[in-house]
Amino acid sequence: MSVLPPRTKATTKTTTKATTKATATALAALLALAGAAGCSSKASDAKDEGKDDAQGVRTGVGVTEKEITLGALTDMSGVYATLGKSVTQAQQLYVKQTNEAGGICGRQLKLTVRDHGYDPQKAVSAYTELEPKVLGYAQFIGSPFVAAVKKRNEDSKALIVPQAWSAALLGSEYIRVIGSTYDIETINAIDFLMKEKGVKKGDKIGHVYFEGDYGENALEGSRHMAKESGLSIVEQKIKPTDSDMSAQVAALKQAKVKAIVLSAGPAQAASLVGVAAASGLKVPIIGNNSAFAPQLLGTQAGPALEKMYFVASPSLPIGDAADGPSKLAADYAKAYPKDGLDNGVVAGWTAASTFGEALKTACKDKDLTREGVAKALRTMSAYDSGFGVQNYSEPKAPSSLESVILQPDKSAKGGATAVREAATSEAAQSFASD
What we know:
By secondary structure, the chain is of the alpha/beta class.
């Protein structure tokens, strides 16, 4: 594993983008309106933080003598509905297994779930509703939504472990991204294209990306890699509601790109790969970790995905033969026999187990307040939930710079196999060290 630098320049990059500013402004306005109708985080802190239980453990918001309540702000009905379902069920499995083993600090875990449908207003409203009720959040899907509550969360001190990888989320002691951020992940992805898929200096590569924090941050990575490696980037910005990639494929084909990076969702991946294959643009396409779902392999785009598509992931896939993935896959299949396996299961489990480990450490330190739990997480400099070692000691840096490269495979458990093991490219290391 790589040693993380004290800070990464990714923390300042995405804030310069006009679309990101517009998104953040709109979401901040929604947050202000929602906050005006709800309880303020400062008020809840002052009222509830700092009580000691019978064992001398300091407690606060979301913690009673019998329960520890965590929040899950998910997407069960929007663009990431498949991911949201897997993440949530994996976290419910973690809660169930933990409670059956006696809980944490003499208390049972409780997961309170809210579906925001990847809608900004619903996401902010759900955060506002749960803020005075939960110790922290084991799930929060959507980089723009997490960024919108970041300032308020600094006051409430509630730990958020999001399923979002934008570098804009770095720098807070109370928001901890698991794994490499989108910029680092994209650099590692292009490194794979150059070392193993024939892309070379002087080539053009396309980058299709969502407007907003996710896509803009990934674009920073491809721009850096282009500068360092002598590539040209043909940019194609899209909205999360755009599902037909025909226009983007036509533009990239005309530009004669040698490969494509995709920073969008599963629906866009199916369209992009399917249309590219049908039009004769048979170049390698690689997506960020949230741009794939194994259910796509059952669509008309399935055969093309298996031949042309790759995915950069912050962790081992659920179908890996290692002990962590093998056990989780078996436990999840037993708990949810009618549901398939995908890497949302991994994302949910690693976030829940990371939060759980922080709770155990905070209990030993006799401080189960919000601030105590966040402090406990920062002592976890080499924690491995079974899917790769993470360093949470420095809030300004990603917990890892590594990426695993996956390839869709209908015959594989979870629908993907690792074609390159966890690694950090030299370009990613230098980018993070600047």
